[in-house]
Amino acid sequence: MAMELVKEKWLNAINKVTIGSTAEEGGSRTKVVTLGGEETLPFLHAEGALPYKPVIAYEVWDTPARDWPEGLSSVYGKVLNEPFAWAKICVEEYKAELLCVRLVGAHPDVENRSVEEEADFIEKIRKSCGVPLIVVGCGDTTKDNALLPVCSQVLKGEHCLIGSVTQDNYKTITASCLADGHNIIAESPIDVNIAKQLNILISDMGMPLERIVIDPTVGALGYGFEYAYSIMERSRLAALAGDKMLAMPFICFVGQESWRAKEARTAEDQHPEWGAVLERGIIWEAVTAAGFLQAGADILVMRHPKAVEIVQKNIEELMGK
Amino acid sequence: MALSGLDIYKLLPKTNCRECGFPTCLAFAMQLAKKAVELGRCPYLSPEAKATLEESSLAPIRLITFGKDKKIELGNETVLFRHEDKFYHPTAVGFIIDDNLSDKEIEERLDRINRLKFERIGQLLEPELVAIRQNADKKRFVEVLKIISQKIDLSFVLMSSDIDSQKEALSCVADKKPLVHPQGKENLQEFAKLAQEFKVPLVVCSSDLEEMSHLTKALKKQGWEDLILDITAKSLTEEIWNLTQIRRLALKKKDRSFGYPTLMVVDEKDPYLETIKAADYIAKYASIVLMQGTQPWQILSLLTLRQNIYSDPQKPLQIEPKVYPVGQVNEKSPVLVTTNFSLTYYTVLGEVEASRIPSYIMSVDTEGMSVLTAWAAEKFTPDKISSSIESFGVKNLVRHNRLVIPGYVAVMSGDLEEKSGWQVIVGPKEASGIPAFLKNLTRTGVG
Ligand code: SF4
Q: What CATH class does B5-56 carry?
C-alpha cells in the first residue's frame, strides 16, 4: 500500500494577473506576462497547479540613480544617467521580462520634475521598448496623485501595473487605472488586515480583483525580512483557504531594500570579516529574493543583473517538476 | 496527537480503585490529559496502554542533541509556519571537508572556517559543524579527523560508508559526540549498533519517503531512535516537497517514523547558487545544511537568514532601554534618541560608529517597537522621552541640552521641547543619513 501523504485541499486559488497587451489587444507590447494562479503554497507542485512562474522586473529610473553603491552602479556604468539606454540594456542584454519604471525625478526633494515632463518621458519609454511595464510614482502622495493619472492615460491600453496606492490614498489613482485598463499595486505596511481592507476599498470602486497586486512592504535580509515573510505566508494561507480579498499575487521591491543594507554597501576594509563587498551585495539581493519566493512572491523588482541571473536559475529549478 | 481525557480513560483499568489518589479512573484520566499528573501513579496499567500513553506524550519531532563543547540541539519543532508559534532549533550549518584534499588545503579550509564569526544585532552568528567525508582509506580518514580536531572547535559529522573507518574515527573523538553519516543505506543496522554503542545520533539516507519510513521504524525496533533524516534528492522541487511532507507527517499525522530532524547536503559548485540552495533549505525546515563554500559573504547571508527565520515572531528582539555611549564620549557629545527595538538600535549604532563621532544613543523603552510603529502606538511620545531623559540621568552626562530625534517623528519636536526643556534637533529619517548628519552637526558646532 502506498504511503499516505499530507495533501491540503485548498478552496481557492490566487488570481491570475496579466501585465502588458499586444497590438491585437489594443496595446503595443511585444508580449505579455501572466503571473499568479497558484493553487497551493510555493513550489508544492504535487499538491496543486502552479501555472505561472514568478517573474523578475528590472528597475529603471527617470533620473540618474543616486545612492547606488559602486558594485551596483558600475555594472550599468554610464547608462545610469540615460534612462532609455538603461532600459534598452535591461531588455536586450539582460533579457528583462518586465521593466519597473520609477519616476523618482518627480519628487519635490529630488528634481521636482513636472507632470508634463514625466508624461513625455513615459511616452518615450513606451515607444522605446516592447516589454510590459510597471510604473511606480515618486513616493510623494500629492505629486503621485497628479502624476500617476497622467501616466495612466499616456499608457492607456498597455495594461501596465501602476502604483502604489495606500489605505489613505487610493481613490484618484485607482479611478485612473480603472478607466485606462491598468492593473494596480496596493501597498500595505506589513499588515494582513490593512492589505485586505485596501483590496476591499479598491474593488468597491469597481476594480476587478484580478487587476490588483499586493505590495506587502518587504524588508531586506537582516532588516525586518522576517516580518514581511510571515505576513506573506499568513496572507497566502488565508487566500488559499478561501479569502478572495487576499487572493492577489505579491510584488516585492527586493532591490530597493537590499541595496540599502549595510551588508550590501560597506567596503571590505571596514568589515574584513564580511568578505568581498561586490559578492556580498549581490548575494544580499539574491538571498532576500529567494527568501520571499518561498513565502509566495510573484514579482520581484530587482537591480543587479548577476543577482537576477542567480534568482532566475533558482526559479527554474523550483518550477521544474 | 495529544489524547483527550476520554481517550485516555478508555485505556485505564476502569476499576476506580483509588490508588492513584483520584476517586475514579476518569478523574485520573482528565488530569493526565492536562499533563497535571504522572502516568506512574496508576500501578495497574497494562503494558500496551502504558506504551500508547507514553508515546502520545512525546514531542512529535524528536529532540536530537550532539556535539560536546557546543551542544547542538535539533528538532522538537511544533509548527509548519513561524507565525503559528516559532521555530525553535535553528538550522545547524556546516562544511564538508573531503579527506583526499592535501593537508595544506585542509588547513587552509579550516583557517577560513575558523574566521567565520559575525555579530548581528547583539548576537554572535557562526557555523556549528564540520563534516569529514571519506574518499580514501581508513588511515587517511582518521588522520584527517585528527588534523581537524586539533585545529577546530566545531562539532563533527563523520561521513563514511565504511563501518571500520567510522568505528575508529568514533573512538578518537567519542567525547565530542559526533554525528554519524553512513553516506547511504548499506549496513544500516550495523551503523545503528555503532551509534548506540557510542551514544551518538545516526543519519538515515533516503530520498524516498516510504522507504525512509520503513528504515526509521526498523531502527526504532532495533532500539536506536537518535536519528536524523538525509533526504537530499535529485531535484530541488522534490527536496522542498519532501522537507514539507516530513514536517507535515510528523506534526499533522503524528507519524513518528518521520518525527526526526532533517539534513541536506548542498551539491553545487557555483558559490552563488550554492548559497541560494542552502537558503531554500533553511527557509523550508532543514535542521542541518552541509555545504562546501566558505566565503564569508556566503555564510554571513545564510546565518542572517537563519537568524531572521528562527527569531521569535511573538517577541521582537529588544535591548535594555538606557543611554549607550558610543566611542570616546565627552560632555559635548551629541545625544541621539531611538527606540529599544534591537534592529533599530543596532542600525543606528552601526551608523554612529561609522561616523566616528563619539555620541550617546538613548534607547527609550518602546516595548521593542520600531520608531514609526511605536509612535503610532503612543509608546514613543514626548512624555515618554522626557521621562527617559530624567530617569537615565542624561543631564549628568552632557553639558548641553540638545537632543537629536529620528526624522520620522519630526512632528513631536515642539511638544517635546516644551515637555523636556531640551532643544530638539530633527535628525535624518533613515539611519544611513546619520554619518553625514553628525558630521554636519559637529562642524557647525551645534552638537
Ligand atoms: S489507580 Fe489506576 S485503576 Fe485505580 S483508580 Fe487510579 S487510574 Fe483507576
A: mainly alpha
Contact B81 A273 (CB under 8 A): no
Set of chain B residues whose Cβ sits within 8 Å of the Cβ of A2: 210
Give the burial class of B52: count Cβ atoms within 10 A of its Cβ; 0-12 exposed, 13-18 middle, 19 or more buried: middle
With beta carbons less than 8 A apart as the criterion, state whether A293 and B319 touch: no
Assess B241–A contact: CB distance below 8 Å, yes or no.
yes
| Residue in B210, B236, B309 closest to A226 by CB | B309
CA dist., res. B107 & res. B101, Å (int): 10
Residue B31 has pLDDT above 70, yes or no: yes
Task: Yes or no: say if B339 and B371 are a contact pair by the CB < 8 Å rule.
Answer: yes
pTM of the model: 0.87
Ligand 1 pocket residues where CB is under 6 Å: B 12-13, 15-20, 22, 25, 28, 42, 44
DSSP sequence for B287-314: SEEEES---HHHHHHHHHHHHHHTS-TT
Q: Model confidence over A250-271: pLDDT tens digits?
A: 999 999 999 988 899 989 998 9
Fold (topology level) of B64-309: TIM Barrel (3.20.20)
- How many angstroms is it from B25 CA to the middle of ligand 1? 5
Query: Please, where in chain B does CATH 3.20.20.20 lie?
Result: 64-309
Supply the residue whose CA is at minimum distance from atom 4 of ligand 1: B17
Min CA distance, A169 vs chain B (Å)? Answer: 18
* Domain range A16-319, its CATH number among 3.30.70.20, 3.40.50.300, 3.30.230.10, 3.20.20.20: 3.20.20.20
Q: Where are the alpha helices (DSSP H) in B310-399?
A: 342-355, 371-376, 382-391
Residue of A nearest to B430 (CA): A260
Number of H helices, E strands in chain B: 16, 17
CA A66 to the chain's CA centroid: 20
Q: Where in chain B is the domain with CATH 3.40.50.11600?
A: 323-443
| Closest residue in B to A219 (Cα–Cα) | B308
| CATH 1.10.15.40 placement within chain B | 5-56
Residue A142, CA distances (Å) to A103, A111, A147, A187, B254 in order: 14, 15, 9, 16, 55
Give Cβ neighbours of residue B73 (< 8 Å, ≥ 6 apart): B63, B64, B65, B89
**How high is the ipTM of this complex?**
0.96
Interface of B with A in 340-399 (CB under 8 A): 343, 347, 350, 354, 370
Residue that has been written with the C-alpha cell 559578492 in this structure = A279
Distance B27 CA to ligand 1 centre (A): 9
Kindly determine whether residue A280 and residue B354, on different chains, have CB atoms separated by under 8 Å: no
Helix (H/G/I), strand (E/B), else coil: A239: helix
Compute how many other C-beta atoms are within 10 angstroms of the C-beta atom of residue A223. Answer: 22
Report chain B's mean pLDDT, rounded to a whole number.
92
Return the pLDDT at B447.
42
What's the pLDDT tens digit per position in A74-85?
999 999 999 999
Q: CB–CB of A224 and B343 under 8 A?
A: yes
Q: Domain B323-443: which CATH class?
A: alpha beta
